Amino acid sequence: xxxxxxxxxxxxxxxxxxxxxxxxxxxxxxxxxxxxxxxxxxxxxxxxxxxxxxxxxxxxxxxxxxxxxxxxxxxxxxxxxxxxxxxxxxxxxxxxxxxxxxxxxxxxxxxxxxxxxxxxxxxxxxxxxxxxxxxxxxxxxxxxxxxxxxxxxxxxxxxxxxxxxxxxxxxxxxxxxxxxxxxxxxxxxxxxxxxxxxxxxxxxxxxxxxxxxxxxxxxxxxxxxxxxxxxxxxxxxxxxxxxxxxxxxxxxxxxxxxxxxxxxxxxxxxxxxxxxxxxxxxxxxxxxxxxxxxxxxxxxxxxxxx
Length: 306
Description:
By secondary structure, the chain is α+β, with helices and mostly antiparallel strands. The protein contains ten helices and eight strands.
């Protein structure tokens, strides 16, 4: 039931994934300065950049098909930046500097092996893929001082983004593909041009573009993010953030980029519904059936209006 908007959960099932690591992750220190006493055997964290979106898609497709990854995410360097710094002020100052270390689009990969032979095999396959796609590793991410902390940040979802079940096929069949990934990349690039106009008008902060693209099920589904930065106590920028969000939705409709998972409120659902087989008709029918008395708060998702 998205955001509780269609009803209330009474029962739920939980899928358990295999975890080849230790019961307790060997981590010391206080966020963001985690200091791993050691990286568990069979684990590896890598952050790689390639020269083009095409090469990025080729690399993650091969990683997915070979099933060597525990977690993979297409991202820029923002999550690494967030893992190291203590405040937004530091983040604003260092993000662009960190971005200069990459040659182009980036992706993050966690490998979690079940045995020494499994680890050796997965690392060899990864190296071959990186060589074939012209990938460049970010040496800082492999530094033992940081690698364990980065790995933990993504596995435990304790940084800008992450979560250990954004896998590459080894557990759960979520394999990055190429078709929808390119569509999402085009959506990001189109929206980025709109964002630049907002920045010029001081409606958003002038910082490096923070993007994420997640491709699932061999490209049948994908998720993309172009994150905005603004001062919430600045009325002009607070309103700018809202305006940009709505403009991004209109861009998705006009460019046929698909319906995002964060379609919230009747206003936005009604924007997408007529363009996508009037799915809103069925959502509202579900709402009426399972929550006829509107006991579940609906304004943040969808109401049962006619």
